[in-house]
Each structure stands twice: as structure tokens, then as C-alpha cells.
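User: For a benchmark we're assembling, each entry needs the component sequences followed by a predicted structure for the full assembly. Here are entry 17's components. Please fill in the structure.
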Amino acid sequence: MMKRCTRCILPEDFPNIRFNSDGICNYCLEWDRRWKNFDYGQAKEELKRIFAGAKDRKRRYDCLIPYSGGRDSTYVAYLCKKKYKLNPLLVTFNNCFMSEDALRNILNTVQILNVDHIFCSYRPEDLRSFYRTMLINAGEFCSICTSGINYVRIKYQKLFNIPLVILGTSSRTDEQSPFEVITSHPFYVRKVLLKNGFENGQVAAFLLRRHFEWGVLEKIKAKLLGTDYQEINLPDYVPWNNQDIQDVMEEELGWKTPDKKKDHIDCRFASIKYYLKNKQIPHFIFKQEKYSQLIRDGQITREDALIELNKLLKIENEDPAELKDFLRFFDLKMKDIENREKKSHLNFISKEDLEIKESLISKIASLPWRLYKKLTFY
Ligand SMILES: [Zn+2]
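Assistant: Structure for entry 17:
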């Protein structure tokens, strides 16, 4: 019998896990430090200040919302427009395999909220070969979606000079996989694509540098030209309860979820993500992270989570219903994804590489930046 945290359901073989004398894991304790005594009053004031700042810029749009058509991003769009009275631009990255539910929800939401929306497609042939390359060489494909979502958010923020980007991901309730399990870091994606025959220009056109990767000159230029922007995760400021969100959206947006237990309804191939991970790490269930977050947040009980987890463990080796469609879509054979060699992102990048690279970037970026700030503001 696998030992698990006595409070959440993370198992003893979870990366970097430690238990205290009560059997509670370090992930639970970390969560407590961040969220247990969270001050919503203070967060609300902070949010007010951020929104007022964005409106004061008097740009065409107050904020940009990366919009997948899933539950969280739809709720972000709803709150921004209806509650906070912002003028948002919604942008959707078309990965060419969005679910019908997501497409229907997008059209419906845009109409009901009466907002501007851009549906951005990236050359489908290039995109498909990016996905294929990641699948064949690193056994995953989610990193390309993450990169694509970055792409649309960076492109359109810049195009309309939007002062604020608002995301719907939450460090309180969403799964937070450690680096050992999954990464979509641009260093890694770049490395895999370049190693497998893509040209520098082709990769650079798609993998845009994120805000934290900006160099000093870029930052200074952005400040001077007024093109800098802020990025926030809305669930870090307001309560984010699944059931409440579901109720509001059904009532206000005519929201339909065919299967309420199903997460990630915006991706047609969500089940394949889990299937492929089990080829790398047997018995690893992504949902155990999500359930653990919800237990900590008091949204489900540990008993219910364990029942759901055991159901998932039972079917971990079954082929998902979408598998044939998936293989056909990416023009792959079963042998391309069987992954007997246990290929993963770890063959291309280590935690140490990443830490060294990141700290170098931040060191180089932050020193002259601090000096510049001193010179201009004091
Ligand atoms: Zn725990």
C-alpha cells in the first residue's frame, strides 16, 4: 500500500515530497503558508488599484484575456466585463484541436458579454510539425499549446499596447506540477525543436520571449515608450470556488458542461496528456495534484478524492477513446508514442540548467535595471 499525505492525497513517490511527524506533506504546508490566512480585503484593494491604473492609461483595451473557452478563462472574462466594468480583448489560440464544447462556449460568451474577440491561428502545418516533434522526442505535446498561448498573448498585448494581461490560472486550486513531472519552459521547447531540424528563424517566430525574459534595454525602452504591461492571475485575488463558478456561469452565460467531473474541457485530447505521462511515469495521476489542491481549499473531502483517484488508477493502462483520432490527427503510429525508452523533457533540460540560466538572466537584467530606476525615480 502506497503511503500518502494524511491531509491531501499525494503519494510518497511524488517528486521532492517530505512528510512531517503528523504525516502532512511539504506541499500542504507550503500551501498553508500562502493561502491559509489569505486576506481577501487587502487583495480586493490591490485589485482595485491595478484596474484603476489600467483604465487611467486610456488605451483601446483595458486588459487582454487569453481565452481558451474553458471554465476558468470564461469566468475571468465574465468578471472583468460584468463586475469590474473593464473593456477587455479576448484572444484565443487555435491549436486546431479545440473541443466542440470550447468553440460553442466561445461564440456564446463573446455574444452575451458583447466583447471583442480574436481567434488566432498559427500556420497549421508548422504547428502540427512542432507537436509531432515534441511527441516523438519528448513524449508530450502540452508545451506547444503553452507556447502558442504565450504567442497570442504577447503578440496582441503589443499590437494594441494593452496595459494589463489577466490570466485564469490559480496557484491555489490548479495542479502545480513540479519540474520533474512536466515543463513547457521556452528553453526546453527551443532546444528540442532546434535539435530536430527546425531553423532558428522558424522557432524564434513562434517561441516569443515572455515578460520575465526581457533584457534590460527592452525594459527601459518599454518604460520610456509606455509599452510595459502588468500580468496578474485573477484567482490570486478573489475566491475561486468551482461550484460557485459553475452556478454563476450556468445562470448568466447559459454555460453547458456535458460532464461536470471532467476537467480541461477545452482540449479534445486532454485524456492523451494523462495517457502519455503514464508511459513515462507508471501510476502517475495528474488529477491527484488537482484533487490535493481542492482538499486544501476545502472544496472536496479527502475520502471523495481517494475514491476518484482509485477509479483513475484502475483505468491508467486503458487506451483513451480519443487515441485513434489523436494518432490520425498528428499522423503518428502507435510505436511513435509507446515510449519504451521513457523519453521526457528531462533528456533535454535539467533543473540545474534552468536555475543557472534563469538566475543569470535575472542577475544580468536586474542590476542595471535597479540602477536605472534609482536614477530616474529618486
Ligand atoms: Zn499533503
